């Protein structure tokens, strides 16, 4: 897979003749989401489904303006656990979803204390899937354990990612996450689990998450640029970067080097050199910077109010390849994380940029 094609596809997406050609997709949810889950040359990729994309698929090949790119495309099949329901009638699909081909993902609390319009992250649609009736507001530990068991037994999922909307409490949602982790560990003691939350007010919550059985953690800052943080994340951007740094350092102490990650979005107006320099600092402290292009998603304030557009592929390519080179220089591989987005890699082109660098 060529890295520049992978970056291009991450931004421009793929036009499918029939949306059911990507039976595993998500239309809204926590963070910058809106994608179909496909295998590009056998590697999991979450790519925008875009009816205006120049990329199409024919006979299992990726075409650009009708010409064969040489890249193979396969859909991730609809998992069998989607056909089940809990005893009280909740479809499993509303409790947790398949990401890429082998990751089970759930948002344990689908509401966020920062969702008022003046506070909301402008790229986020966490409550839209709730409004659309596609999920439930709070998943219980027992529900998540039940679905994880089925997804493991029926569909062979190999890791679980649990994220949460931010709660009002000092723990920022970490306590409920820990309860959910414990419940899953009871039924699947060996399943690697990543948790994702904001820096908790009491850093002891990080130890609690690890003690519960989580083996990786994502503490997602999205941008290290103060102006971008305040413009794009007026609520979350008010959390000082010093709090993030303290949480990352404690998380590295508790979870270990390269078991901590953070999303860094490209396309929020930050300086690319500063973005790369910030990513290198994170790598040096043991935190994996997961580089993802900003995706304009209908239903978000970024698109519906601000008219934001996707970043230029050349900018994404440059930042991604430079960060991939720094990761390689430090021997930091996403696949070495026990679970989570860095381990999965489908939402980033870092993996293909690393391979391209390694091959060159
Ligand atoms: S990178 Fe994270 S959000 Fe993207 S598909 Fe993988 S687990 Fe899901």
Features:
alpha/beta; globular; 6-stranded antiparallel β-sheet; TIM Barrel; 360 residues; 12 helices; binds iron/sulfur cluster
Mean pLDDT comes to 92
**CATH fold name, please?**
TIM Barrel
- Secondary-structure arrangement, i.e. CATH architecture: Alpha-Beta Barrel
- Determine Rg (CA atoms, Å): 19 Å
Uncertain runs are: none
- Approximate strand percentage: 15-25%
H/E topology pattern: HEEEEEEEEHHEHEHEHHEHEHHHH
Could you say how many structural domains there are in total?
Answer: 1
Q: In whole angstroms, how far apart are the ends?
A: 13 Å
- Describe the largest sheet: 7 strands, mixed
CATH class equals: Alpha Beta
Overall form: globular
Structure classification: alpha/beta
Q: Major sheet: order of its strands? A: 7-8-9-10-11-12-13
Protein model, in words:
With 360 residues, this protein is α/β, with parallel strands linked by helices. It has a single domain, classed as Aldolase class I (TIM Barrel, Alpha-Beta Barrel). It is 34% helix and 18% strand. The protein contains 12 helices and 13 strands. A 7-stranded mixed beta sheet has the order 7-8-9-10-11-12-13. Helix 1 packs across helix 10. The radius of gyration is 19 Å and the shape is globular. The protein starts with a helix and ends with a helix. The model has no long low-confidence stretch (mean pLDDT 92). Residues 97-336 form the Radical SAM core domain. This is MSMEG_0568 family radical SAM protein. It comes from Nocardioides kribbensis. Its cofactor is [4Fe-4S] cluster. InterPro entries: Aldolase_TIM (IPR013785), Elp3/MiaA/NifB-like_rSAM (IPR006638), F420 (IPR034405), rSAM (IPR007197), rSAM_MSMEG0568 (IPR016779), rSAM_sf (IPR058240).
């Amino acid at each position: 897979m060529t890295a520049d094609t992978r970056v291009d596809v991450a931004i421009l997406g793929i036009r499918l003749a029939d949306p059911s050609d990507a039976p595993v997709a998500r239309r809204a949810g926590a963070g910058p989401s809106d994608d179909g889950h496909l295998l590009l040359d056998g590697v999991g990729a979450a790519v925008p489904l875009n009816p205006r994309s120049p990329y199409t698929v024919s006979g299992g090949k990726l075409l650009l303006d009708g010409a064969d790119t040489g890249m193979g495309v396969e859909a991730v099949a609809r998992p069998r656990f989607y056909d089940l329901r809990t005893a009280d009638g909740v479809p499993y699909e509303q409790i947790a979803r398949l990401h890429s081909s082998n990751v089970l993902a759930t948002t344990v609390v689908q509401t966020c204390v920062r969702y008022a319009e003046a506070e909301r992250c402008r790229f986020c649609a966490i409550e839209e899937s709730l409004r659309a009736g596609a999920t439930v507001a709070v998943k219980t530990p027992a529900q998540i354990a039940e679905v994880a068991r089925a997804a493991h037994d029926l569909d062979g999922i190999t890791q679980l990612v649990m994220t949460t909307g931010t709660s009002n409490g000092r723990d920022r949602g970490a306590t409920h996450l820990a309860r959910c982790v414990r419940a899953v560990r009871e039924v699947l003691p060996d399943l690697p689990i990543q948790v994702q939350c904001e820096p908790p007010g009491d850093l002891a919550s990080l130890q609690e998450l690890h003690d519960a059985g989580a083996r990786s953690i994502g503490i997602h800052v999205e941008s290290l640029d103060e102006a971008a943080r305040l413009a794009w994340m007026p609520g979350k951007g008010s959390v000082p970067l010093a709090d993030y740094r303290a949480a990352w350092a404690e998380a590295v102490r508790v979870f270990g080097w390269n078991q901590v990650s953070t999303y860094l979005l490209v396309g929020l107006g930050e300086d690319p050199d500063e973005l790369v320099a910030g990513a290198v600092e994170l790598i040096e402290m043991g935190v994996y910077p997961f580089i993802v292009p900003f995706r304009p998603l209908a239903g978000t304030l970024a698109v519906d109010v601000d008219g934001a557009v996707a970043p230029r592929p050349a900018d994404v390519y440059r930042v991604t390849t430079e960060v991939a080179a720094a990761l390689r220089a430090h021997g930091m591989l996403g696949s070495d994380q026990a679970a989570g987005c860095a381990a999965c890699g489908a939402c980033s082109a870092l993996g293909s940029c690393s391979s391209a660098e390694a091959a060159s």
